[in-house]
Amino acid sequence: MPLTSLISNASDRSDSVTARDMELRAELLGKLYGAALEPERLDDVLEDWDALVVPQWHLPSRSRRAMLEGSGLLPHMQQLNRMLNHVRRAAPLSAEEAELKQFRRSAAFTINGALKISAANEAAVEMLGVGARQGLHDLTLRADDRAVLARVADGMLNKRPGATEQSRLVRARRVPDDHLILLQMRLVTPEKQPKFVLVVTTEMYWPEGSEATLRDAFGLTQAETEVLMALTQSRTLSDIAAARGRSVDTIRTQIKAIQTKTEARGQNELVKLAMTTMDFAPSDPDRIGPASDAPAAAPRVSRGGQELLPLPYRSLTRPDGRRVDYLEFGATDGRPVMYLSSNLGLCRWPADAERMAMQMGLRVIAPIRPGFGGSTPLRRGQDRVGAVAADMIALLDHLRIASVPLLVLDEDMIFAARLHHIAPRRVTAVLGCSALLPLTRPEQYERMGRWHRFILGTARYTPQVLPFMITTGFAMARRMGKAEFVQLVYAGSKADCDATITPRIQEALDSGSDIVLREGFDAAKAYAAEVTAMHRNDWNDELAEMSANVPMINLIGTEDQAIPPATLAEFREAHPGIKFESVADAGSFLFFQKWPLALEHLEALMRVENAPTASE
């Protein structure tokens, strides 16, 4: 349909709007299509968006949605977001990805000539732990089985073509449950691309939504659904009984009930029927690609810069199989500090600040949140705030750290508050640097700089269109380059713009933000989830609980476009347990601009961190 017709249809949907509103809608829709085609034109949208949408923030949510639906903008923005995601995935599939496309439910992956996992499907990511992995040693298989896998793959890839073994069936056992699986290995020699080994396993994966599909299709109970899913994964009756804390006779009874409801004549037919039903369940096509739960292979080293030293990413594996990456710098045996680096992913400090951390005896620990860098994304619908807090607790346990002060940037205070709520004794003090607190009224968004108002206000008041805004914004940043994008978004803050041309600050911003945006990868989905969590949830009570029990300071730059003076005054009134300090010539990147001041405050907080808290 021609763009003029789209605009006309959108304009004709409401009889109760003014001619100016209709004109604005038409102009805005045209600019949105322009931004979808050329993401760097997203800046053109802001003025019309402010004029048409911002006044709606004072209306009830139902009225705001009705405005979007009546304008015709909402379906177009949803379509535009699909277009953008399609374009982002539209690059020709590699030979590995093309092979994996045919395996939707079986865990499958590929091994390249360097004996690395080069691509994996969603099932392999979930069942064998190959997401964001670099080598076969990270597969959740027994060590001797991994050795066999490597030896067979090496033989296939490095012998002469005429003598190469083309196919091989390998037995292996999965850690930690010792479950036996079979791996069919096949040499693939694509034209004009390097050869690789395709590995297809007997491990079957039930993606999100499969359980509900199966339950609803046959009217099963939750327990019956779980038993049937276990059968499709080749579990024995005794294994299923042990895992569920039931007797084998109970499991047999449940299987008979399932057979009655499905009209299956025996377990083999039952499993076949369930496997067929799996094809009706939803799947995520984005989860087939490079060997990563993120859209591209995750970096294993934070690259540093001219002065900033490269650092290796470390990781731990959570019980659900997710990988959680983290960085450490400063004094290896020093006093621990957990650094929450914002949804911009600013996980590195300026080089001189990292050296000062060493001199001060600080051991800085920076967790990389789900969907950023090499950390496995969360499943759709998971509680992001709770999962991040639980990951931080697991990381402290992993490092054998009982308690820790938190250094918190930007929009990360929500995670600090949840961490304290779940495990109050683990948090000894909190230092915020331009840390945004809960916003409670439209005026607080209206005061922001234009880009902050655009993204954060959209997250709060019109979240239906947030995916398009975020996807387009990330595409714009890729087109323009990080520094130029920051210059545009933070144009209202001289201090923040100056940060992009200050070498030590810029290299820290550039290196750290690789976990959010780099060549071939972006964390748009994770970023959107975090912004939504911050602005759509009420976390005032958890923040008040934390500020009443641990010392808290929040440094706010006078040029911070998200927290102008009037909003800071409201924060002071709403949160008397937090000490606020205004910092001249600083903005959203306050820590990077004023790190000596921040570390001075952190040192002061750490001197009193052993004082008893109200919760004790």
Q: Main traits of this protein?
A:
6-stranded antiparallel sheet, disordered N terminus, 18 strands, globular, alpha/beta, 47% helix, 8-stranded mixed sheet, 616 residues
Compact description:
The protein has 616 residues and is of the alpha/beta class.
Write up this protein.
The chain is α/β, with parallel strands linked by helices and 616 residues long. Strands 9-10-12-11-13-14-17-18 form an eight-stranded mixed sheet, with helices on both faces. Strands 3-4-5-1-2-6 form a six-stranded antiparallel sheet. It starts with a helix and ends in a 9-residue tail after the last helix.
Strand content: 15-25%
Query: Could you tell me the radius of gyration in angstroms?
Result: 27 Å
Query: Strands of the biggest beta sheet: in what spatial order?
Result: 9-10-12-11-13-14-17-18
End-to-end span in angstroms? 66 Å
What is the 3D form? Answer: globular
- State the low-pLDDT regions, or none: 1-16, 283-299
Helical amount among residues, as a percent range? Answer: 40-55%
Structural class, judged by helices and strands? alpha/beta
Contiguous helical run count: 27
What's the number of extended β-strand segments?
18
Rounded mean pLDDT is: 82
What about the largest sheet?
Answer: 8 strands, mixed
Indicate the topology.
Blueprint: H1 3-11, H2 19-37, H3 45-52, H4 61-71, H5 73-89, H6 95-100, E1 106-111, E2 117-120, H7 122-128, H8 143-158, E3 167-174, E4 179-188, E5 196-204, H9 210-218, H10 222-232, H11 237-244, H12 248-262, H13 267-278, E6 289-290, E7 301-302, E8 311-312, E9 314-317, E10 323-330, E11 335-340, H14 351-360, E12 362-367, H15 384-398, E13 404-409, H16 413-422, E14 427-433, H17 442-446, H18 450-461, H19 466-480, H20 482-489, H21 494-499, H22 503-512, E15 517-518, E16 521-522, H23 524-536, H24 540-549, E17 552-557, H25 565-574, E18 579-583, H26 590-593, H27 595-607
Parallel strand pairs: 11-12, 11-13, 13-14, 14-17, 17-18
Antiparallel strand pairs: 1-2, 1-5, 2-6, 3-4, 4-5, 7-8, 9-10, 10-12, 15-16
Helix pairs in contact: 1-2, 2-3, 2-5, 5-19, 10-12, 10-13, 11-12, 15-16, 16-24, 18-23, 19-20, 19-23
